[in-house]
Amino acid sequence: MKINKYEYNGEEYITNMDMDQYDLKELTKVFHEVYDHEDSFYDKVMSAKDKSVFEAIRELEEMLEEERVRLTNLGILKKSNLGRVSSTYEGEAYIAGLIELMFLYLEIHGYKRALYLNEEIDRLDHENKPHIHALYVSLCAYFEDEQKIKKVCKNCNRPCIIYFMSMMVLYFKRGNFDKAKEFLNLINSTNNTFIPYFQGKKIKGEKAQIVFSVVKDFDYLFDNQYIKEFIKNRGNV
After folding, report:
1. Which of 8, 20, 211, 220 has the fewest CB atoms within 10 Å distance of its CB?
2. Contact in structure between 27 and 129 (CB atoms under 8 Å)
3. What is the pTM of this model?
4. Which of these ranges, 60-64, 104-108, 123-127, 219-223, has the smallest mean pLDDT?
């Protein structure tokens, strides 16, 4: 992963995401590979995942609470272990379950619960995957929490389309269209297929694939026609 610093208005804004390697599905693939052998709790997580989204959420909520109590009694979730819970196999399996549940809430647009689970994952494991940070930044933008975005981005490694996109949406929602346009321009300088996509133009290549992915995976940032028109018109309002 490339490590670069980026300064915007005197402050460093960075993220662990390498834009050129972006793939949200990679996160699920990674922990499926990690647990590609028999484990009772992880098997239960995977079993719940194969059911309807409603049944899966109910089962995972119940299982994760039971597992939280069990791991607490074992000392795995004690205060001194916070931030590195994944160093134990049981802790890593528990975090995998939280990640699975978070994705399910995103699927039903339960964004508040998804944000809580994201924060819990980070509290337990500071070394979590960069995709968790990307989701966190976008969800904070959805709820217009600029301070949380700045806090997490100061501890990361590189700016990316996810961060710029989230900040554009945050300022747009606040009515600060000039600031939103600044971030739209940063998106365009990073990936010049982003605006054409919203203009209905045909785009192709690696950068186009990134745009297809981020627009699909973070569709809640574009949940009204006005933000789409803003992008289509290059921020000229």
Report:
1. 20
2. yes
3. 0.78
4. 123-127
Tokens of 230: 């803003």
Residues 54-76 as b or e (16 or more Cβ within 10 Å = b): eebbebbeebbeebbeebeeeeb
Calpha distance 190→161 (Å, rounded): 7
Supply 195's token pair: 């605006």
Q: What is the largest CA-CA distance in the chain?
A: 58
Closest CA to 125 of 105, 98, 147: 98
- Which residues make Cβ contacts (< 8 Å) with residue 68, sequence separation at least 6? 77, 94
Q: What is the dihedral of CA 195, 198, 203, 204, to 10 degrees?
A: 90
pLDDT class for 10, splitting at 50, 70, 90? very low
Domain map of the chain by residue range? Answer: 7-21+147-232, 25-139
